[in-house]
Amino acid sequence: MVSQVGSVPVPAPLADGPDGLLITASELLGWRRRLLALGGDAAAFDWLLDLGGGLRWSQLQALWCHPEAEVRLNGSLELLEDLWRRHLDTHEPLQYLVGRCPWRDLELPVAPGVLIPRQETELLVDLALSLWPSERPEARWADLGTGSGCLAIALARSRPASRGFAVEASPEALVQAGANLSRWELQGRVTLLPGDWWQPLTPWWGALDLVVSNPPYIPSATLSALEPVVRDHEPRLALDGGPDGLAAIRSIVAGSIRGLAPGGLLLLEHHHDQSEAVGDLLLAAGLERLAVHADLEGRARFASGWRPGG
Length: 310
Fold this sequence. Notes:
Pfam families: MTS (PF05175). One of its GO terms (molecular function) is peptide chain release factor N(5)-glutamine methyltransferase activity. The longest helix has 14 residues, at about 75-90. This protein folds into 2 domains: about 1-90, no CATH class; about 100-305, 3-Layer(aba) Sandwich (Rossmann fold), CATH 3.40.50. The radius of gyration is 22 Å and the shape is elongated. The protein has helices at about 25-35, 40-55, 55-65, 75-90, 95-100, 120-130, 150-160, 170-185, 230, 245-255, 255-260, 275-285, and strands at about 1-5, 10, 20-25, 70-75, 100-105, 105-110, 140-145, 165-170, 190-195, 210-215, 260-270, 290-295, 300-305. The strands form 4 sheets. Strands 9-8-7-10-11-13-12 form a 7-stranded mixed β-sheet, with helices on both faces. The protein is of the alpha/beta class.
């Protein structure tokens, strides 16, 4: 369906089942203003309209200029309002309430007990692909602490000749990662392994060309200062990095020489103020060609190092 005012078309998303709602732009915008008056962030509300109602941000912007246009939502205003009020009352992440999260070119199913993929972690994939040796299209790689499986899915889809391993200690996250790998039909190319960091990879120690990880790196004492939407709902196992935030990173770096193949690459995400400490750990472990990589805001957020040889 395309609604039209004058000669300017305003596309409307398709309805999803019997709850699809046809509404004018002025009615929708008035409802939006009323709910935003209850509190919350306008960008978060528009995200809910997108993921929960099927109304893309560009479509929403067009409606401001065409108040008589009609738009069809996926679902009812009552359902969307209930989700918004629940978000305001309990601080539950909208990603959990809607059940999915946009990330790179994916809409990943997510649920409580699983870390919500962050935008900056998309860069970890870009870095891995840019540093991936062109002569190793069939490389073996591993994602330590896979969570939703976002990194593993992105790597497997980008390098279809490779073989991957996704390691996860959380039972809830293992279920979600397994479902997500199945959704993209990657079970034959990515092996899901339960356990901590390098331990489940024992049969492949010394044969991994690339290892990526977005481990927990928030110092334990600062967890209470996080926003309630994170602190009270996302899994502590995926957030708490120990007293200095480096407990998981130490374990990963310590096993890198044993786990990586000669010439293999370790690529880590860390807190924006941990770059120097992480670099020291990589150096002490015997890795070489160390590098610091910036996030979307220009802050040192990623570190890489290579096992000698190869």
